[in-house]
């Protein structure tokens, strides 16, 4: 009870987002919302696009078609205090969520002092998403996943517009030199078991080996190592690409002690960023922005009712404002007020019949109502799924309608159809950076008997940057390797049951 009271008090006194002129800037890969001068906002999103295009330029990556709903939404709030309120306590100066419904980032206008600022965090996390979206079927060891993100995360612009990549991360200085804690023999493992101080060291040493490989003339060794890992060779065999590992530690230390290290300089005329559209938010959109930011951050059972109350009060004066009603639909849904969520979605659709967000929340609300009522009528479930089908037809490269269509079969207590299962694989192709979606796709691939592809889906999670404590994905891989498809499915089903039990127990304790 005390925890709930403290949380409520924190949210009640959470700094109100400034009420001035909220604007939206949108480009090919980003949508930025800020209470900011339009010219400043345009310059900001152009820098983000320059960063994205530069990553493509230096890696030789083509710019593939992208769903407008899968662009990164960046919300700029006033200061770090507001970030902490969103985050739920003291934490980073900004944060990023890579999710199949659409990646989101939260940054402060003023991130205070220090080298690990919000822009560095955003670039680091975007580096992860870029890596997983660009090479979704490649397994990268954790040191390189983090080393690459650190390598691009410190990018900065000179006054002439040149983007510099490869600057040393000053905030990792302690970890970079800790050879004894993270020698190459340990770091090069797929799962180095990093915990506590080892995380700081892995990031630092990972950056150093990445820099040494990419800019120190050792790219061939890195490529051979990654190819060996992905060819299924033992990690000891893969490590031989770098030669004697004790000597590698000495070489890395000498490399890190150099007075100056090379960087990549990309002049402004080397990349094209494309057009930027600017617009002032509607009055209803601006009024509901605080609730929207918290909804996008994600709410738990304790925060959801309060955010729904904010949205309800803010949207009341704007029944014909589609963005305001869309936020109300989302907030009511999160608070489990499904009839109210459907009503808000209806109001949004009355104004914008092609609103993908409203179509999805209309279907989601109906699905939850039908599930609670234990509806078995096939015609009713087909009607519910039709909302997701409509959304998919409006944006065929958006992952969320495909996911919801698949999930509707479990909600109805029915086996998914082949088209539903194929849809999940399509969603996975569009948003391979979402771990929950990869787990879902991994299950489908196992059930379809495509074991190599299933293994790839689980490997990125098992050896990725955000492993769970018990590393469910690694358990599934071990079961698959030891005893095949049925054992892997059994391990996955057991893990899902464990997660449901924990969630149920958590609700009991919270109640």
Automatic annotation (TrEMBL):
Domain of life: Bacteria
Keywords for the protein's UniProt record, in alphabetical order: Signal
Gene3D superfamilies linked to this entry: Tetratricopeptide repeat domain
Stated name of the protein: DUF1570 domain-containing protein
Organism: Sphingomonas naasensis
Signal peptide boundaries: 1-20
